[in-house]
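Researcher: Next sequence.
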Amino acid sequence: METGSKAIEDLIVVMDKLLSPQGCPWDREQTHQSLTRYLIEECYEVLEAIKEQDMDKLREELGDVLLQVVFHAALAQRAGYFSFADVARTVEQKMIRRHPHVFGDMNLKTSDDVMDHWEGFKKQEGKTRVLEGIPNMLPALMRAEKLQYKASQVGFDWPQLEGALDKLKEEADELAQAQGAEITEEMGDLLFALVNVARFKEVEPEDALQKSNDKFVRRFNYVEDAIKASGRTWQEVSLEEMDHYWDEAKEKGL
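Model: Next structure:
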C-alpha cells in the first residue's frame, strides 16, 4: 500500500501547480474567506458518507476535506504565514501534549480518567477561562451542548434531570407569553433548555434532530406519493386527507 506521506507530497505539488502563474485562474483568485463555504460543505458530505456507511464515498469525501486543508495551507504559505508541514507538526505536538498517558509517564486507564484530565491538558496550553476554546461558528445546537458540558464540569449544573425539565417548562411558558422582539429571545432560551435536557438524557441533540428531519422527509414523501397516486394535486386534497396519509406512513414504520 502506498505511504501517506508520498501521496500528500504529490497533492501539495498539484496544489502548487494550480496556484502557479500557469495554473487555474479560479484557484488563484481564492482566499481563506472565499473557501469557507466549500470547507463547510465538504465536512457535511463526509458526515453524509458516514451516515450512509458508504466507505468508497467516505474515502472520496475525506479527500475533498484534505484538499481544503492543503488549499488553505498553500495560501498561507504564499502569504508568509505557515506551510502544510507546520499545520501537521502543530497538531502532532498537540496530540502528544494531550496524551501524556501514551507518550509520557501519566497513568490513565479508562476513558473517564482521560476526560477528567482533559481540561487540565488544555489549561497547560494557555486556556484560562472555562468556556474558552468553543468556536462561535459551531452549529447552535452543538455549541449549546458544549457550553453546558463545560459549565457542568465546574459544578454549574442542575443536580438532577428534574431541574432541567422544570427549566424547560418555565421557558416554554415564557415563550407562550412573549410578544414582539421577545419571541426570538425566548425561543432561543427554550432551545437552550431543551439541549440541557438532551444532555442529561445522554442524547446528541444535533443527531436527534437530524433523525427527526429524516423521519419527516420519509413521511412527507409518502403523503406526496399517495396524493400523486390518487391523480390529484396538493390543492385538491384536504388537510384531513393529508393527516390520514401521514398516519398511514406512521403505521408503516416510516
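Model: The chain has three domains: 4-96, 140-203, 206-251. The CA atoms of residues 100 and 106 lie 6 Å apart.
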